Amino acid sequence: MPVGLLLAVAGGCGRANSQPKAASEPRPEVQANHFDAANTGIIRGQVIWQGEIPAVAPFLVRANPIGGSALANRQIQPNPNAPVVHPQTRGVGNAVILLRGVDSTKAKPWSLPTVRVEQRDLHFHVHQGDVESYYGFVRRGDPIEMISRDSCFHSLHISGASFFTLAFPDPDQPLVRPLTEIGVVELMSAAGYYWMRAYLFVDDHPYYTRTDRDGRFVLEQVPPGKYEVVCWMPSWLEARHAREPESGSIARLFFLPPVTLVEKVELGKQESKEVRFAPASRDFQP
User: Fold this and answer.
1) If pLDDT is split at 50, 70 and 90, which confidence band does 247 have?
2) SS in 3 state form for the chain?
């Protein structure tokens, strides 16, 4: 889980507590690519929820008299980490599927669209091509654009593989920042909107995808080799929270660690392999 930062409050708004680095950091050196499309294979599969589908309660956000206009009234906000389970097929939608053990010198060229993070209606919206979700896949060294569409003050805190905080005092003023470290990056609010959450996955290879509404996924043009196919899902369960000393309102909330289900696959040339994942509520318990 991310390490909490102190939340500064002035006039009812959070304030960023670190300065962004220059957006012109050099891209990490990439080795020559030896991708052979003719000999690649396919990994496909499905994620099916097992057992009772959890009823994840929303957050009841109490009015904060010193929290600014966005927190002036009592409100209900959904838990962004709640699993998306189809009630009939029990397929888990919008789960992240990725490959571990990829030789980046043999991987297919990066073909995923660039990522833009919007703070809108007090939620994160990660745009990647024509997809909007809480997740985005970023090539290491590529810049991401971050912007606020709300009139209230936003402060975006990033932790995990990267660590920084950016202030957005005005709407529609984008900031750009490269992500240069491989790993998972967690986005959260440093302005008191504790329910806001999104995740970016940074890597040198593009073998990442999201499941569809029925839990199905496909990873194409995978070079022969031994891999771990990973199903990654965030936990919706609270680990702890921090309160503002002035109002007693929750300022930061931290979730339990995400769940990663792993299946090993050995893929030959022009071969197709099927993988199944079966997450259940017990996997998310501490």
Assistant:
1) confident
2) CCCCCCCEEECCEEECCCCCCCCCCCCCCCCCCCCCHHHCEEEEEEEECECCCCCCCCEEECCCCCCCHHHCCCEEECCCCCCEECCCCCEEECCEEEEECCCCCCCCCCCCCCEEEEEECCEEEEEECCEEECEEEEECCCEEEEEECCCCCEEEEEEECCCEEEEECCCCCCEEEECCCCEEEEEEECCCCCCCEEEEEEECCCCEEECCCCCEEEEEEECCEEEEEEEEECCCCEEEEEECCCCCCEEEEEECCCEEEEEEEEECCCCEEEEEECCEHHHHCC
